[in-house]
Amino acid sequence: LSFTLNPQYSDNSDFNPLTFGTIYPSSSRKDRKVLVDSWNNNFNISGQLAYSEPLGKGFFIQTTLYSQIVDKHSDRKVYNIAAAQKNWTADDPLPWNFRFFSIDNISARGHYMLSNSKATLSLRYNRKNINVTAGVSVSPQFSRLEYRDTLGRDTVVRKKTVFASPNFNMTLHPRKTDKLSISYVAFSTSPGMYSLVPVSSGTNPMYVHYGNENLLPAYTHKIEFSYNTGNALRQSSLVTNMTARFFQNQSSNLVEYDSQSGGTVTIPFNIDGNWDLKGSMAYNKVLGAGFSIVQHASVDYVRTNSFLYDSHTRTSEINSLQRAMAKESFDCQWRCSW
Question: What kind and span of H or E run contains 82?
C-alpha cells in the first residue's frame, strides 16, 4: 500500500502598458495604446493511492486510484490609454483616469474548476523470466467553466466525460541477455482555461485568439515494442525499439487571415486522424585487434491533420501532412587499448 500527495499553488499578476502600430495598404498607420492588467491564481492538488495483494502462484491484483483537482482564477482588464490621454507615450506616467476607459470586449474574467480521476484495476503475473500486467482504466472527468462574455453576461459551461481503456505490459527474458517488452497505455489531456474561454485576446489586434468552450479532452493511445540482446562471447549487442501513438480529439488551431489588415484570428477545434510511428535499431560488434563496428538505423513517420481556411468561401477544410524520414549510419572504430 502506498500513498502520494502533491499540492501546488501559484499567484501572479502583470501590469503592462503596450503600444501596437498597424500599417494598412493605404500606407496609413494606426497606433493602439492599451494597458493590460492581469491576475492569475492557480491551485492544483493531486494524490494517488496504490494497493497490491498477492494471490499465490505468482499472481497479484493491483488497484490504483488517482485524483486531481484544479482551481484557476483569471482576471484580465484592458484599458485604452490613448482615450484617456491623446498624446500619451511610453515615457509618460499613466493617466490618472485610465481606469475609466476599459475595453470590455477584450477584457476577460474566468473561473475554471477541473476534477480528474483515474481508477485502474490490474492483474499481474510475475515469474523469473516473465512479467505480465493486464487491466482496465476508467477516467471520469468533470469541468466547470465560468466566464464573463463581451456583453457583461456571466456564463457557466459544465462538462462530464468518461474515458475507459485497457492497459497491457509484458516483459520476457528468454535468456539472461535477452529482453522483450510490449506495452499499451492510454491517457487524456485537458485543454487549458484560455483555450476554453470564447473571449478575444485582442490586446494585439494583429494576432487575435478566441477560446472554444466546446473543446473536448484529448486522448493518446501509445503502443511500444522493444527487444534487446547481447552475446558476451561474440562481444556483440542489438537494441531495437518501436513506438506508435494515435491521437484522438487533439486540439488544432483554425487560423483566419485578413488580407486587408494582415492580421489573424485563431480558434482551437478538436480534430482526429493524427498519428506517428518511430523505430530505431542499434548494433554493436567487436571484431578484435581493437576494431569494432557500430550500426544505427532509425525511421520516423508522422501524419498530421490541420484546418485550412479559405478566405474567399469563408469555409475550412482538413489539410493532411505526411512526413517520412529514414536515417542510417555505420561507424568503424579502433582503439589501441581498452
Answer: helix 81-84
DSSP state, residue 131: E
- Per residue in 265-299, is it b (16+ CB within 10 Å) or e — as a string? bebbbbbeebbebbbbbbebebeeeeebeeeeeee
Write the pLDDT tens digit of every residue in 176-234: 888 999 999 988 888 876 777 776 655 566 777 788 888 888 989 999 999 998 887 77
User: What cell does 182 get?
Assistant: 510490449
Cα 219 from chain centroid (whole Å): 10
Other C-beta atoms closer than 10 Å to the C-beta of 226 total: 16
DSSP per residue, 11-64: EEEEEEEEEEEEE-TTS-EEEEEEEEEEEEEEEEEEEEEEEEEEEETTEEEEEE
- Above 80 in pLDDT, residue 103? no
Give the whole-angstrom CA distance, residue 149 versus residue 207. Answer: 19
* Diameter of the chain measured on Cα atoms: 84
Angstrom distance (rounded) from CA 234 to CA 287: 9
Phi, psi (rounded to 5 degrees) for 313: -90, -10
As to burial, measured by CB atoms within 10 angstroms (0-12 exposed, 13-18 middle, 19+ buried), residue 43 is: middle
**Three-state secondary structure call for residue 219:** strand
Question: Cell for 54?
Answer: 498477492
pLDDT at 242: 95
Residues 31, 211: Cα–Cα separation, whole Å: 26
Q: pTM value?
A: 0.74
Tell me if 265 sits within 8 A of 256, measured CB to CB: yes
6: left (phi over 0), alpha (psi -120 to 50) or beta: beta
| Closest residue by Cα to residue 48 from 26, 65, 25, 72 | 65
